[in-house]
Structures are given as C-alpha cells and as structure tokens.
Amino acid sequence: MAWGTRLEMDQRERQARARTILSFFGLLLGVLVLRLFWLQVVQFDENYRLSEKNRMRMRTVVAERGSMYDRFGNVLVRNRASWQVMITRADMRDPEELKAKLVSLRDGEDRPVFDSALVAQTFEVSKWRNKYAMHRILEDASPEVVAFLSERASEFPGLSVEVESRREYVYGTLGTHAFGYIAPIDEKELERPEFEGYPKSARVGKKGLEASYERFLRGKDGVQHVEVDAFGRKLGLLKNMPQIPARPGNSLVLTLDLELQRAAEEAFPDTLRGAAVALDPRSGEILAMVSSPRLESNIFSLDSVSRKKGWQSVALDEARPLNNRAVVGVYPPGSTFKPFTALAGLKEGAITETNKPFQPCRGGFRFGKRVQHCWHLGGHGAMNVVDALRVSCNVFFYQLGLAIGMDPINEAAATFGLGNRTGVDLEYENPGALIDSVEYERRYRKRLGWRWSRGQILNLAIGQGELVTPLQMANAYGALVRGDTLWRPHLMRMVVSPEGRAILRYGRKMIRAIDMDEEFHRIVVKGLEEVTSAAGGTGHRAAVPGVRVAAKTGSAENPHGDKTHAWIAAAAPVEDASIAVAVVVENAGHGGGVAGPIAGAILRKHFELLKRRAEGNDARP
C-alpha cells in the first residue's frame, strides 16, 4: 500500500512539473507570436519604411544654371563638372576606422588628400544630424582621387563620390565684372523673400548679371529615389518611386560683342586702373565693358580652401578689383564736360558759332585775387566755341561759366543723363553728382567747412568737381552726337529657355527724347569732330581712317595722386553714330595721350568688324 501510494504521488508531481514546463513554453510561444504579430502587422508600415531606407536614398538633383552668350552666340559663361567626396553615416560600418583611413591617404606628391580638421569636424556633425544625410569632405576632387576611391569603394563603406556643376567663365578675366560671380548663399539671403525655398547649400549670384538675373538663370531642382548597396554605392533608380527631373535654368544672350570686348581688354593694360565702355547709342546695347584691374571670377568656383584664399586676395587688394569701375567708379569728368557747358552757352545766347566774346587766353584767367590757369600755359589767344572745344581751352570756358551760371550748365548735363543713374541692368550703380550751390554746401560745408562762392563756377564749368561714371559719359556722348534720344544702357538682350525659345527680350527703353536745337547740335559736334581731325585737336590718337569721329579728351584733377585722371569720350560716325565710347584711366596724365589710344583701338576694331561682317567674312571665335 505504501509503495503504491508513493508511486502515485511521484507520478502526480511529474505531471505537475510537465504542465508547468508546457505552460512556460506555451506562454513563451504566445509572447513570440504576439511579438511577430506586432512587428509584422501592427508596425508593418513603419518597419517597411525603415527597411526601404536601408536600400533607398532620396537625392536632390541640383539644376544646371543657365549659360551666357554674346550677341553672336559665342559662349561666355557655362558650367563644368565637379566631383565631390561625401560621407553618409548610415552606410558606415566603423566610423572611426573610416575616418582614420581617410586622413592617412596621401597623393602622388605625398600630400594629404583630405583635410584632417575638416574630416574630424564633418564626422562629428554627422553624429547629430540625419544619419542618411550626405556631408561633403572634399570639393573639386581630382580625377586621380575619384578613380582611386571608385576602384576601392568596398574599402570605404559610407563614402561616395557625387558630381555637381560649377560655374566656368570661359575666357578667364574677360568681361567678368559684367558677368559677376556666384557663391554659397548666406543666412541673411535665406531670409529674403526672393530666396524662399532655396536650400542652405545653394549657390547664388552675388554680383553683376549673375545677381541681376538670378531668377532666370537658376533652374528648378529635381528629386531621385535611388537604390544603394551595402557600401552606399548607387545601383540605379527605383522604378516604383517617383522621379522628378531637374529643369535647367534659362540662358542669357547678351549685348556684348566678344571680339570687341577682347579688343577693349587688350587695349587696356591690366597694370592700369580705370574703365572703358562701348555701347550702341541707337539702342543702349552695351558692346564692351572693361574694369581694371581685372577680376578672376573662376576663383569663386574653386574648392572652399582655394575660394577663401582667392576671396581674401581680392578683398584686401588696395586696387579694389571687386569694383566694377564702369558703373560704380565716379570721377570728375574734366574737359569731357565742356561740350555741355558749350550747349548751355549757346542756348543762353552767350556765344555763337563765330563770335569771340571773351578775353583772349594768355595761359590764365584772373578772378579776384587768384589766377586760374589754362592747361596750355602759352595761351590759345582769342577764339570761338568751336576753337575752344578743339583745343580744350580752359580760359574760354571759365568765362563762359561765369557768364551763364551753373543752373543752365547742370540742366544741359542732366538732360544727357550725367549725375543720375542710367538704370543699367546691374545690381548696383553709382549716380554720381552735378554740383550747384545747394549741393556744394550739403557736401562740403559741415564736413570740410567750405562755402559756396561764385568762383566755384570756374572749376565746375570745365568739369572739375562733378562726379560721373564712365557708363554715363558713354551714354551721354552717344545721345549728344546723334542728337535724338537717350536710351537706357543694358547688357541683357534676350532670355532663352532650355529648349531654345526666347521668353523675354529687353527691347529699347527710352530715358528721354533729346530736344536740342539743330544749329546748336551742329556747332558742338563740329567742335568735337575737329578734336580728332583738325590741327591742334587733342584727340588724334582716337581717329579712325575713313570715319568721322567726334570726341573730347580730358584730364581730371585727382585728390588722391600726383597725376590727373585721363579721360576721353567719343562717338562715331558723326553722320549716324553706331558706337559711343568712354575711357577713364586713373592717375595717368593727359587724356589724349593715355585714354585716346585705348578708345582708338576700340573704335577701329568696331568698324573693322562692321566691314568684315557686312562682307560675310565673319570668322567668329
């Protein structure tokens, strides 16, 4: 009995233990089933999204920026391919090992391929940002570096090489003050409404036409969904995901003539400071624009280290190469202002074509206790207005200014746009200034203690005191010699879509119609033509064989140097001017000897090109 009872008890205990074990495993299996249900059913969408992220990347496709062409279709500004080395945290197996490999890489000349400080900083940043985001560790990688990394991609999981476009100014420094440059967008710009939607990595126009026509040149970025392998290498586009192609920006066809621009830059040595502008006075189209010293805009498309060095070199340069002197530089016009004084004198009846109403020039003019000298100390003798323009006699214009006062003179100058912005399609233009008693007191009385006196008219009548830009002067002379209309200068001729369709044309925009007495016009232009063609004229070096050129040289006082600024302004042919030119050379001496040859080279090239193109022999570059 005892043995049977004991066996029954042992059997019941074993059964109880078995039930306990079975219950435990049953509970464990239930937990596993519930967990699988939770992962595969309840969290299916989230887990599917995460698994897709392991093989899918969404990448922004940066749109190509529009190009720039001259008026004949020669490419001036375009894009070039630039290779960027990137890291993606999610694709790294061992970030520290990868970082160590990268900083140890050397090129063929035993120089580090990567900047160790930049690599360390970028890896640190990648810890705290989206692990799927790409971060740049090398810009503008060389073909050798790209080939090396591509061949050994399996050794660098998390590293990828991407291509993007960078701006290229085809002819180096040629015309780059007009083109401007692009650079990374800054925080302040991101807050402005015109840059709404721009990514922080965007590069935007900062100066010149790149800035003025940013909204046309910039395209629309696209989106790609790509499949990648375990090393982060692109395998291809995901067919079941939407792909939004990037739309390139529009291109600009400019008014510039590449051959004339080249001739102007060759005639204007980079060792000199100043500017030259050539435009078509029948429309305001700018044919050439030079500012010296030159600016190498391609430095802004280099890698960040080279770009920083280049920026520092130009920003700290005392010659201020960043300034476009053609539209920002303001200078006293010197004797190039005298035709406007002459027009005012004719209109006021103080002079005629033939009369000689003033004291003869004997090398100077006494006014009160001081003597104002003429540039020709031997004197010019008695003369009429045509003579005075031809030989640029200061004494004649001193007396004319005193006879009529500054108001008629400034009115004549303002009619032709001097002392006012022209409205050129660049991001900034200096208005300059015409000086009368009110403006003189405003500018100088509080700052320097100077007061207006009638004697100021002597200097102002010969252009020593006003401030004008080379662009203003070229535009004024074009309208003066033609005698009809002052047009707004411009550099953009046409905006063209990526498909080659014209979507915007600039067209002529009138500043004002010139209401000038025909006889007065004839007299002044006669004097200007004799500057280049008659004995004693100061502008012979701007003459063009077989072409009637109206011009005026000038030497403007310079408070910052020993030598005067050298000026010349001209338009030709006299009977139907197709080009107007203004040249100013800082601290250079006499206009006829320094600025005259530059203007002459531009004028002669213009008429050579007109003849060649008319004959059908235009071998364009």
CATH topology of the largest domain: Beta-lactamase
Query: How many domain modules?
Result: 2
Poorly predicted tracts of residues:
46-52
Q: Count of helical segments?
A: 20
Helix content: 25-40%
Question: Helix and strand layout, with pairings?
Answer:
Layout: H1 2-42, H2 44-55, E1 56-61, E2 68-69, E3 75-88, H3 95-104, H4 116-128, E4 134-138, H5 143-151, E5 159-169, H6 176-179, E6 182-184, H7 187-190, E7 203-205, H8 208-212, H9 214-217, E8 222-228, E9 234-237, E10 251-254, H10 258-267, E11 274-280, E12 285-292, H11 304-315, H12 338-348, E13 364-367, E14 370-373, H13 385-391, H14 394-404, H15 406-415, H16 437-448, H17 456-461, H18 470-482, E15 485-487, E16 492-496, E17 502-505, E18 510-513, H19 518-533, E19 550-556, E20 565-572, E21 579-585, H20 591-614
Parallel strand pairs: 2-10
Antiparallel strand pairs: 1-8, 2-3, 3-4, 3-5, 6-7, 8-9, 10-16, 11-12, 11-21, 13-14, 15-18, 16-17, 19-20, 20-21
Helix pairs in contact: 3-4, 10-20, 12-14, 12-15, 12-19, 13-19
Task: Please provide a written account of the structure.
With 621 residues, the chain is an alpha+beta fold. The protein has 2 domains: 58-254, Penicillin-binding protein 2a (Domain 2) (Alpha-Beta Complex), CATH 3.90.1310.10; 259-293 and 326-614, 3-Layer(aba) Sandwich (Beta-lactamase). 38% of the residues lie in helices and 19% in strands. It is built from 20 helices and 21 strands. Strands 2, 3, 4, 5, 10, 16 and 17 form a 7-stranded mixed beta sheet that branches. Helix 3 packs antiparallel against helix 4, helix 12 (338-348) crosses helix 14 and helix 12 crosses helix 15 (406-415).
